[in-house]
Amino acid sequence: MIRHIPTLIINILLAASVLKAQQPLMPEKIYSFDPIPVQKPVMLDSVNLNKSAFSDEKLLAYPVSFPSQERFTTELAPDTAGFFNLAKPSQGEALQLFSFFVSSDRYGKGKLTVTSPNPLELWIDDVKRGTKTQVNDSLHHAGSVDTNLNGPANNIRIIIKMLTSAEYKAGPAVKIELKPDEKDSLLIYSFNNTDKRRINIKDILEGKRVNSSSISPSGRFLLLNLRETLSGGNNRTYTEIYDAKQKRTIFSEPGGRAQLSWMPQSDLLYYVSDDNGGRALYTLDPLTTETKIIAEGLPKENFHMAPDERSVFFSTKESITVSNPGGLRRLLGIDDRQPGYRDRYYLYRHFFDTGLTQQLTFGQQTASLNDITDDVKKLLFSTSEEYLTERPFRRSSLYMLDLESMELDTIWKNEAYAYSAQFSPDGKQLLIHGAPEAFSGIGLNIKEGQIANSYDTQSFIMNLATRQVEPVTKNFDPAINAQEWNAQDGYIYYRVEEGDRANIYRYDPKRKKFDLLPLKEDVIRSFNIAENAAWATYTGVSTSNSNRSYLLNLKTLESTLVSDPYAERLNTLQLGEVKDWQFTSSSGDVIEGRYYLPPNFDPKKKYPLIVYYYGGTSPTARTFESTYPLHVYAAQDYVVYTLQPSGTTGYGQEFSARHVNAWGDRTAGEIIEGTKAFVASHSFVDGTRIGNIGASYGGFMTQYLITKTDLFTASVSHAGISNITSYWGEGYWGYSYSAGASAGSYPWNNPDLYVKQSPLFSADKIKTPLLLLHGTVDTNVPIGESIQMYNALKLLGKEVEFIQVDGENHAIYDYDKRIAWNNAIYAWFAKWLKNDARWWDSMFPNE
Predict the structure, then answer these.
(1) Which of 175, 371, 639, 647 lies 20 to 30 Å from 681 when distance is taken between CA atoms?
(2) Does residue 682 share a domain with residue 819?
(3) Measured between alpha carbons, how far is 153 from 19 in angstroms, rounded to an integer?
(4) Cα–Cα dist 697/718, whole Å
(5) 171 secondary structure, DSSP code
(6) How many CB atoms lie within 10 A of CB 760?
(7) What percent of the chain has pLDDT over 70?
């Protein structure tokens, strides 16, 4: 039998809880650093230029680089009055450092008070927040300094820098008190003495990472490109060279030499440098760091070194000149709004021995260099032209140029879905990258009635003698991102999108067999093979670590870690566990996904859930950093679930083809099914507090989902599409993206698709509080998409907020704006999923 507790008792208990929460919290122990003796300077005069005498305040102000937490080794416990006591110096003065950490369980406000008879400075996360200059004679008369803590306290570091002296009457002592604001009765602070903390958005933006690695022709040296983002958003770049023979970094310099790359045959690097006379081309010896000029007076362009190292190829731009009478600008085509539409590029070759620069292409079409044979006798280039009456609205042609005779061979003309090509090692075949529909659909592997997803890219081999094309990956489910035919072992190496991973496969053209390479990361971002040796290098990332670079033995397939600069910062972060989870949809499909747990996860608790998705054909990859870093949401005590619904590439052509002409159909159903199944399968999830979030096509999915279900408690749409028709016509890439997503469908021949699948036309069905976010200069999905939905929901009296990010495009890259934008998302979810609006109200108070 359930007994009802009288209201009076409940009120008494609540009042007691609030009173307890408002009692000052004091640490049970702190750690101190060994005393740092300080001395007064030689007094050449009694006062300085400001007419002030030297004082203890100036001693206190001596700069100190604060040691790491593990160097604070003296443990202190408080006396009955709450003071931590130290011994006086036997003579003279010394600085005494104390270090500890403070965390809070939620957003809130509080006050930290430090009481001491000694002069001291109070530092929070390396920022001085207060100074006490007086010397008091006793603990009873000790003065204090305080500072406010505003926002989430994510294990912030507190350092007290105290001046002690043998001459002071009172012994050195410090009392530390922390009290939440009176209005924050729910806020709980805690002290600790470890530098481990939960991840936050700054950890995603800041830190040092390796971006890419490339290998010298012999396989001995690796070139590493690194980037560091400092607090505040400033960036630094670094270049390092790793010697695999010595197993160490032999060269490191800040900044970067422009176009720094390995020569094709020599273990030398080349780079460019500019002066008033043009651009000079240099070589750099990695062992001696000796540099040599190999060409001068070059145009300021990007260069491609010829395989024999005797010449370079480059492109030079010319632009169409059109008059603008009276400031009127006539568009020359649909894409004339985009930068560079009127530019054309022509191929040139510069010979080192003669100094001759020869033009290779001429006319009105851009020529794009694809590849050069190893003997430098043949060159592949492609052209592309608009063909607006038929998707995909552009057609390409590929040509093979004989560099000795300048004779031109047309490989294909006006092919709609072939994108690029490269020579086989013997120059007798071409390795081609294209969509499934290329070459009259020879590579299609879809069901009857489906239209292939043109973003699900494939690989083909053409025999140059017969022009016969083989669809290499027709029955290979992963999508092809990059490919290279290696002359050393004859394998074709593929970097592929396989589910939420990016893997490396190698393909034997003779056995027609694919083999997965056992690499060390979930998502391989770069893969580079040595020209003359069985070695490679790769850079990759996983769900719970940043970019790392490796040396790979292509014979043994053993990987050696050579660079992991983010590891030091990562070691200070507490990350929750990431687990794979899948469900079988009502259509019988296995829908893969994964979920993130909060740090210090307690399976007996009930956590709110955040569901993240994209749905716009690409998977949500297993990357640590992203625009929406799922570990950061989990660090705020959410369980985070992401999934790969129908239409996603990397699961085979039939699965990805479900994206075409769907615009949420089936995909939304799977997200709803998956969310319900996830909640039912995990007892630690609170099914009454579920948030959903997506961006771009994922922002469209957010809006579409909440027209179909009331499952979600709060929703976030960043740069989402509300009206497919207006996005199709106004977005810079709207019509061209729709060539794949809405193949053959236009507002005039398929109004049902453009209206029924557009969330705007079902706005009256939305009951979920919706946060719309959009950059004001978004050219991909114009801001009008959010304006339309905001206007509709406001007129309907729905719960909606609209945050515009001034001056930002489709993604938010400005450091400060990106932090504020993320905080708005976190505050929105706290308001609706934790019933705590204080963070939101502090950012956007009602005027």
Answers:
(1) 647
(2) yes
(3) 21
(4) 9
(5) P
(6) 20
(7) 97
d(CA 269, CA 261): 5
**What CATH number did the domain enclosing 149 receive?**
2.60.120.380
Tens of pLDDT along 221-250?
A: 999 999 999 999 999 999 999 999 999 999
**Pair 14, 163 in one domain:** yes
Q: What is the DSSP string of 333-372?
A: SGGGGSTTTTEEEEEEEEETTT--EEE---SSS--EEEEE
Q: Which residues pair with 535 in a beta bridge?
A: 553
- In the numeric block, the tokens 């695999």 are attached to 244
d(CA 169, CA 682): 62
Spatial strand order of the sheet with 83-85 comes to 83-85, 173-180, 109-116, 143-150
Residue 390 CB neighbour total at 10 angstroms: 11
Given this model, what pLDDT does residue 22 score?
Answer: 58
Joined together, the tokens standing for residue 395 give 């057609």
Asked if residue 466 is part of any domain, the answer here is: no
Contact 276, 296 (CB under 8 A): no
- Taking alpha carbons only, the member of 671, 612, 661, 619 closest to residue 477 is 619
Cα torsion angle, 564, 566, 572, 575, sign: negative
The answer on 718 and 592 residing in a single domain is: yes
Domain boundaries, position 184: 7-40+54-195
| 3-state SS, residue 516 | strand
**What is the helix (H) or strand (E) element at residue 727, kind and residue range?**
helix 724-730
Q: Are residues 704 and 790 in the same domain?
A: yes
Task: Return d(Cα 458, Cα 733) in angstroms, integer.
Answer: 22
- Burial (CB count within 10 angstroms: exposed 0-12, middle 13-18, buried 19+), residue 28: exposed
Pairing outcome for strands 685-695 and 607-612: parallel
Residue type, 347: L
Q: Is residue 383 included in any domain, yes or no?
A: no
Indicate the SS3 state at residue 388: coil
- Is the full-model pTM beyond 0.90? yes
How far apart (Å, rounded) are the C-alpha atoms in residues 534 and 380? 27
Residues 184 and 274 in one domain: no
SS3 state of residue 441: helix
Burial class (CB in 10 A: 0-12, 13-18, 19+), 819: middle
- Residue 19's pLDDT band (boundaries 50, 70, 90)? very low
* Cα distances (angstroms) measured from residue 10 to each of 16, 17, 206: 10, 10, 47
Residue type, 407: E
- Amino acid at residue number 623: T
Q: For the beta carbon of residue 224, count every other beta carbon within 10 angstroms.
A: 23
Q: Nearest to residue 261, comparing CAs of 216, 296, 307?
A: 216
Q: Would you call 180 helix, strand, or coil by DSSP?
A: strand
Tell me: do 186 and 290 sit in the same domain: no
How many angstroms separate the CA atoms of 648 and 667, rounded? Answer: 9
